[in-house]
Request: fold
Amino acid sequence: MDNNLNNEQYIDRYKQFYWSYYLALEDRLAQTEKFVSFDKENGKTFSTEYLALLQMACSEIDVIGKEIGNHFSGVDFGKTDGILKWGYYLLLVFPELTATKVLFKKTKEEIVPFEGWGLEMVPDASGKNRYVLKAGCKTPSWWSDYNRVKHERTSGLNYQKANLKNALFAICGLYLLNRLMMRKLDINLYSDLDGSTLFRICGFNDERSVTFGVDDAGYVSAIYHNEK
Reply:
């Protein structure tokens, strides 16, 4: 998006081009429950619909990952810049990303979509910067499976990676990036938007309804209720 926009204009564009698209993908995932229950036992169930959802979600993660790095770090990314480069800058903006837990409301499962991920920048022999995984870190498995499905789909085993679990984790990851970006733009933004029906970030009180009261000592206190 255009960084010449003021913050209010940028937020309006964000809501139109990013959050509304996310909600459409989330709704499409929710519709699959009519045919396959959201249960760990069904995690390996694969289909063309999960293939489409996995590809759309990961493609959007690539887009929003670059947007976050560009908007908050001022980095211009090329079309060929992949997850190693934009991911490095993404983790500079959101170092908490790899430990953040997201509750999947349907099963009460806590998901950490970017768990174990870590990147560093190192110079190569010519002095150019390269972006590599840190020692002991790994790329999220659902992202690796997305690339296998994308580039080597005709392999039967790779096609089977277009499954419920990978589609769920990818859309969960996209949700998390949106929510962290949203908070950095305006901590109160989520309360003004249509919320997620599938996910909630653990520990984020802005995803709960709140009322205020006065305790016996006369102090005002906030009471948080069920998640939004």
